Amino acid sequence: MFALIKTSAFSQAKVHDGGVLAPPKVNIDGKNNEWGQLQVHTNNIDADYTIANDNEKLYLIVTASNQLSARKILAGGMTFDIFLSSNDKSKISIKYPLFSQANWPNINLKDITDGKSSPISNNKMVDSFVNSNNIKLLGHSNEIKILGSNYSKDTLYSVYNESGINGAIAIDTKLNLSCEIAIPLKFLGLSAKQGGSIKYDIIVNGSNFADGNIIESVEGGTRVRAIGSAPLVPMQEMRYIRYPTDVKGAYTIVN
User: Fold this and answer.
1) How far is CA 134 from CA 5, 53, 199, in A?
2) How confident is the model at residue 4 (pLDDT cuts 50, 70, 90)?
């Protein structure tokens, strides 16, 4: 699914400390251009992320520059759990992106240079490739699941829903995968003026299906089975993709 990408990890705190004021103009397009260096790198989900807010919304931006972590996000999507009370009983969960075997964004990056070492002569080719596949990604990720409050656990919503919660996912010219989620503060019963805090859990859900392969439990262990003409994915990679990983922390609303 993704060509091998070296992790560009930097030394950061494992979770947020305090709050972060969002950039003046946030465009939920799956691109992290306006965010600069993200606040946190965590090995828990092997990705960088920032949680921030402005006067109206709470934002989550996650960027995976590691090939396997990006594939895991595409395989099972992410869940952003927001705990609104100290006893953890009041929780809002946002699940995005949502892909199924029938709605899989078939992106093959193996036949193109990764954009990090690409010579200038290949820049137009990389740009064209990224643009066409971002259209494909957005076309396959136009639903979001909202759990908690008055929202049904069995209902999917458009990324442009009446609650104002939306999300987007995209790759950049270095083939980093970024996912953005925006949630109105009023939906959470929060206010930038009044402040307050939340606890959160960012979960990369994991999946038994990835890159056209299925990992199955069989007598005596597990096996990987490719569907159709898909290349067989190594067992170690499929085991990593299969199980959820997460990072927990606390965030303070700022003004």
Assistant:
1) 18, 26, 32
2) very low
